[in-house]
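User: C-alpha cells for this one?
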Amino acid sequence: MDRADPAYAGQRDYNRALLSLYDPLVLGPIARYVWHCPTSGLVERYRRHVRPGHLDVGPGTGYFLEQSGLPDGSAVTIVDPNPTVLRHVARRLDRLAVSAVEADVLKPLPVAGPFNSAGLHLVIHCLPGPMERKALAVADVAAVLAPDGVLFGASVLGTGGNHTRTARAFLSVFNRQRGFDNLADTEDGLRGILGASFDQVELEVIGSIAVFSASGPRRPAIA
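Assistant:
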C-alpha cells in the first residue's frame, strides 16, 4: 500500500513481531481488562455467523478463523493490504482452503464472490475516518455477498463510548500512533453505515466494543 494512502497507518504496524504478540496481549488482557469485552464472547458470536464460502477482511492473526469451527477444507478468502498478514494467516489456516488477496476494503474488492458470510472483525476502528469514508468498506463487502449472506464483526467505539478511564487512555494512545482512527466513531454512526447497505442490522455494545451483524445486502449480489 502507498504510504500516502489514508488507510496505510491502520495496517502498517502488523509486522511479524506484532503478529506474534497479538493473540496473548490484544486478545487476552487488553480485550478483557481494557475494553471489557472478553475474546471468548467474540469467538462465540463469530462461530454463530460464519459459513463455508467465507470472506474475511482484515483477518488479523487468523485467530478467529482458527476458532471458527469451519470444517476442514472449507473455502475461505482473506483480504488485507498487508502481505505479511496474508502470509501469516495462510500458514496458520492450512487446514482450510485459503485464498489470499492483497487489497484495500475501501476500494472495490477484486474478489469473485458471492460469499455466504463476511467478517469485518476488529477492523472498522482501524480504517481512516470519517464514518462516511468507512461506509465504503461496508458497501464494498455488501457488493460481494450472496443475497442471503451475512456481514458480521466488532469495532471499538470512539470517545462517545462507554469507556473506563483505562480504556480512554488506550484509545487516546492508539489514535495518536494512528493504529486506530476512531475517536468520532459512535454506536449510531456504525448502525447508520451498516443500515445504508443492509436491510437488517443487529448491534450490541459490550464494554467499549460494538458487536454487529447485518443481512439483506442492498447492493446487487454477483450472479
